[in-house]
Amino acid sequence: MRLTAPAPAPLLKLVDIDGQSIAVGGRGRRTLLSFFRDAACPFCNLRIYELTAHHRALSSLGLDVIAVFQSTPADVRRFVARQPRPFRLVADPHGETHDVYGLEHSLWRKLKAVVTRVPALLRGLRIVGLAGLRTNNRMPADFLIDEHGRLAEAWYGSDAGDRIPFERIELFLARGLVERASAARDVGGSDTITAA
Question: Among candidates 134, 167, 135, which has minimal Cα distance to 58?
Fold first, then answer.
C-alpha cells in the first residue's frame, strides 16, 4: 500500500553495504530516502550519477541521502559503488524495505520507460552495459522525510525512470531552512522579552 504525506515515516533499521547501521524515520536531519529497482538498472545508475553530482549542494542545505537497491550487496558494489559515492548505499535483495514503503511491480511501466525515455536509457546503459537490460520489474520511489521523522513527500515513479525532480527536493530543503530560522527567531525573541 502506498504511503501518503504528511504522515510518520515508517521506522527502518538498515545496514549499508559497508556494515554501518542506519536509522530511518527517527528524529535527525532531513532525508531523501530513494528506492531503486536494481543495481544494474540503467535509469537507477543515471539517477545515482545525478545524486552524486548534486550531493555537495544538497548536503550543505542539510540533506542526508540514502539509496536502497533491491539487489545483493555484491551487485550494489559491482554496478553502483565501484566509484565512491558521498551517500549511504543499502542492499535489500528480497525487497523487504521496498515492501514496507509500498513500492510496486509493473512490467508495463518498465517497458513504458524503455520506450519513452530512450536518451536516459542509453546514457544509463553506457554506465552499466548490457546487464542493464535484465533488471527486475520493481518501480522506483523517493521519500522526503523531515527532521521530525514525518513524510513530507512521497513520490512513486510512474515508470521505471520517473524520479522526484531536484526542484522539489530543493523546495523541501528551503522550507526546512525557513522553519529553522523562524524557530531561532522565536527562541531569541522570547529571551529578549523575558529579559525586559
Answer: 167
